[in-house]
Amino acid sequence: MDVLNQHKYFMAAQSIIKRHGLLDENGKPHLLTISRFRKTFAQRMWQLTGGDIVAVSAQLGNTPTVAGRSYVAVSPDMEADFRRLGHLMHADWAGRLDDVALLAELARETGIPAEQLKSIAVGDSNTGVGRCTDPRHGEKAPGDGTLCTHWVECFQCRNQLVMESDLYRLFSFYYLLLKERNFISRPRWDELYGKIINIVDHEIIAPNLRTKENPHGCFDPYLVQKYRAEAEATPHPMWQDRTILGRVP
After folding, report:
1. At 221, is the pLDDT very low, low, confident or very high (cuts 50, 70, 90)?
2. What is d(CA 236, CA 176) in angstroms, rounded to the nearest whole number?
3. Verdict on whether the full-model pTM lies above 0.90
């Protein structure tokens, strides 16, 4: 923005502040800055795209990591979704699924009945790329009561869950998508699969690694690397043949 436009913006902002009596938390005239508008824009884009951090980052001209860290504020709904994912993953590796009190607490926090939580955790609702909180009536389900198999869409579905024991299947799918770059054009690959790779890397794995800086992370880094290597060398039978992608809705 050049100096003239900056001055025009400043004067327009001052007019809005004065006309509407906008005050900050200290009772002083509110300071409107471009950076504040940018964060509002990012938050609105997040809502309109259904939480697609890749699409938001593209609009901002940032990487998904920068956009998520600097511009997208964590809403109560986002926190609830993260807690749901984290609690279930921890319940899985902690082996506490027979703990009635734990299940009752999880049910209160997630809004999912205790028996359904247990069913999800033991694998009754497994998908090709993780698990589902409601495979018959979830956000991406067909709507007729049949099981949902729209696994490519799992990565933009509020019903998706990924536990540590799902990582072998998840990475098998991940590497199959990467191999598809050898068979279709790059623009087409970006359109179909690029977002999924980014979601796996930047939303599922990286924020949930258990490290010294993130001691409550849900994934053991050693197991993540183990499942990565195993999936790349010997993929899960479901994701060994690229023809399966043509049959995934």
Report:
1. very high
2. 10
3. no
